[in-house]
Amino acid sequence: MSRDAGHFNLTARVLHWLMAAMILTMLFVGVSMVASLHWRPVLIDLHRPLGIAILLLVLVRLYNRLRHRPPPLPADVPAWQAAAAHASHWLLYGLMLAMPLIGWSMLSAGGYPIVMWSGLNLPPIAPHDPALYATLRNAHSLLAYLLFATVIGHLSAALFHLWVRRDGVFQAMAKGPKYDDAR
């Protein structure tokens, strides 16, 4: 079944692929920060601004999503799969918002400066509290695992639509129409 007319607008497609690369980078940076003492300072210096960039971009992406409805799934997609797709997309948005905010709060609670780059620090958004820091650190780690699992599920579903169903769902995000209206 083809979805010739159904596509995401250019802004949605650019933000999707840019943020996919950023989130995958963040997941690998997060794992590497825990695994390597040698590279940890450099990776932390990358992790903080990348997290805040994701936070800002997800706000733009949510605004775009609310202004431009995504194309509908093919009519023959089972109701449970459509519901799972809908739920997983909103879970991804929630995690893209929560992860940077929890990370920022965690550093604030730990009394650490939130250095974006030399000369620019973000203000704390949580009170200095070691117990809160520990709780937020655990939450940040657990949600990172959930984000990883959700990304794997999203990628698996996208490849299922591309290789098995061949229904145009993947192409709606991958390339759009021959022309792209600047809606």
Tell me the span between the first and last alpha carbons: 26 Å
Shape: elongated
The name of the CATH topology is Fumarate Reductase Cytochrome B subunit
Share of helix among residues?
55-70%
Beta-strand content: under 5%
Give the helix tally.
Answer: 5
Examine the secondary-structure arrangement and name the CATH architecture: Up-down Bundle
| Overall average pLDDT | 92
Number of domains: 1
Question: What does the radius of gyration come to?
Answer: 19 Å
Instruction: State the name of the first-level CATH class.
Output: Mainly Alpha
The H/E string reads HHHEEHH
**Could you tell me the number of beta strands?**
2
Secondary-structure class: mainly alpha
Low-confidence stretches: 179-183
Keywords: Cell membrane, Electron transport, Heme, Iron, Membrane, Metal-binding, Transmembrane, Transmembrane helix, Transport
Domain Cytochrome b561 bacterial/Ni-hydrogenase: 7-176
Pfam family, one: Ni_hydr_CYTB
Main location: membrane
Kindly describe this structure.
The chain has helices at 10-35, 40-67, 79-109, 130-165, 169-174, and strands at residues 114-117, 120-122. With 183 residues, it is mainly alpha-helical. The protein has one domain (10-71, 83-174): Fumarate Reductase Cytochrome B subunit (Up-down Bundle), CATH 1.20.950. It is elongated, with a radius of gyration of 19 Å.
